[in-house]
Specification:
This protein has one domain (41-399): Na+/H+ antiporter like fold, CATH 1.20.1530. Mean pLDDT is 86; it is low at 403-409. It has 18 helices and no strands. The longest helix is centred in the last third of the chain and has 32 residues, at 368-399. It is mostly helical and 409 residues long.
Length: 409
Amino acid sequence: MIALIPVAAAAPLPDAGSLVLVLAAASAGAILSRVHRRIVLPTVVLEIVLGILIGPEGFGLAEIDSHIDFLADLGLVFLFFFAGLEVIEHRVARKSLVRGTAGWAISLPIGLVAGLVLHQAGLDAEAWLVGVALSTTALGTLVPILADGGLLPTRLGSAILGAGVAGEFWPIVVISIFLTGAYGAVAETLLLLGFSAVVLVAATAALRARPPAVVRVLQQTVHTRGQAAVRLSVCILAGLVFLSIEVGFDFVLGAFAGGLVVGLALNSPEAAPVRMRLEGVGFGFLIPIYFVVTGMNFDLDSLLTPTGIGLAALFLGLFVVVRGTPSLLWLRELGPRRTLSLALCAATGLPLIVAIVGIGTEREAIGNDVGTSLIGAGMISVLVLPLLAIAIARRESSRLGDADSTSPA
């Protein structure tokens, strides 16, 4: 006689068909962005658009199950991780960083005031969330566009990098504090200082505490299946994300801190292969899934209404005002036209906006229709503003006989 042993209910199987379509959309986005030699489209915009097409607002070909949702969450973690890596990677001049931070300190109050006015006018979104979203800059999206346009090695390029680093770093810190909400202001400040101390210790260890045996293993496995450096980097990321959640902060801060620590450890030419392998995991797999899923969740019907389009246009204008106004700090050095180019680039934002809207939606801090318009405005900013900025900068260089266009920062 066979004894009947109670078995726990089996977990639902993944929707393999939907996962294949999500991966196909991610692959198509990367290919379509480079189809034409002279026109480079932002991959993130294409991923969102393709997600809309395969999702319920489009042809309804794919659905989001718990497995796809989990992969998308990992993609969001890696998105903030690479934001931290970019801060270290670009090695922005100190003057540009200081001025970029000062500019962001001007942007945030303007954004918060705009958010407060909109909230008082009936906008279904908390003022702080709108303010922080308006004060972001899509540095990772801008860099390849500016590199193709030949602006990165110029003074204008240095100014854009300074504004971009500040526009990624400080919004992440602010939203992490705002999203905590579990403690009083004093306790949260002390916890943030304690978390920063842990990150500082980890960064110091990454830079100095390198036992020869460990270094040898890391070097020997770079080009083998061992990939110890990649595994250790992902472990550091997971550890800091876990720590940030345990002390009451949002995972965003831990993911960004993980990027800073790993970025410091990989801040040498010898570490380039490790960085490439991490990018393969992040940008080759997880992050595209996050943006395709964002498209599948995108409420296109809400955007394609007079109110939705009007809100998107309003947000696009606010991007330019909130992030463009601090560009006046560079007016004397860059001149009026290049300062306008800087303002347009600084006003370009999408990846962090998508993340902020997603987190805010989960916490019921922003209405779905408002978030849709905010993301729509971000998509337009990425598609239009950098191209306008490059065109203005090139026209100014031609007018000046290119005397200043190649001047290093």
